[in-house]
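Thread: "does anyone have the structure for this chain?"

Original post by V.I.:
We have the sequence but no experimental structure in hand. Need at least a predicted one for the grant figures.
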Amino acid sequence: MTDQGYRNAPLELEIYTGGWGVLRTEYGWFAVTQFAVSSTLSFDLDASREVNPNALDQKIVREAAAILSTEASWNRADNRKCPANATTWSIYCALEKATFDVTGGIHHRRPALEVVREIVDERTATRNYHHYLMDYNNDPTTHLDDVQSLFKEALYRIEKP
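Reply from O.Q.:
Generated one for you, C-alpha cells below.
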C-alpha cells in the first residue's frame, strides 16, 4: 500500500466465503464489502469507517485490565517496547500481551486498541500527546484508577449496541 510521501506500508487482506472480509493496514482495519479475482484482484471498502470491535476485542480489553490490575504490575515508563519476559506492563504493552494471549498474534491497529486510543484522545484533548497510549501511561497525573476506568469505558463502548 502506498501513501504519497511515505514508504510502502504492509497490509493484510483476509477474505471470507461470500466475497467479504477485512483489510488490515497500519492506518486501521477496514471492511471489505466486495471481492473478485479474475486476471486482477479487486475489492471494495469504505476507508472512512474502521471495522467495529468484536467479541475477541472484548476479551482483549478484559485481559489487559487483568494484567494491569495492580500498581506493582504497572510500568509507568513506557517506551512502546514490550519484551516477552516483562514483569510489568504499560497500557500499550498490556494490550499487546492480551492481544497475543487471546488471538495468537499482534496488530497495533486492532479495533480493541483503537477504542482505547479514542478514549485516551478524548480524555486528553487539551494535552499535546504524540503517542496517545504511551504519553497517557507515562503522564504523572494518570493513576491506576484512570487506567482501569479506561478499560471499563472501552468495554462499555465495545458492548453497547
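V.I.: this helps a lot. The beta strands are 11-16, 20-25, 28-37, 41-45.
O.Q.: and The chain has two domains: 1-51, 55-159.
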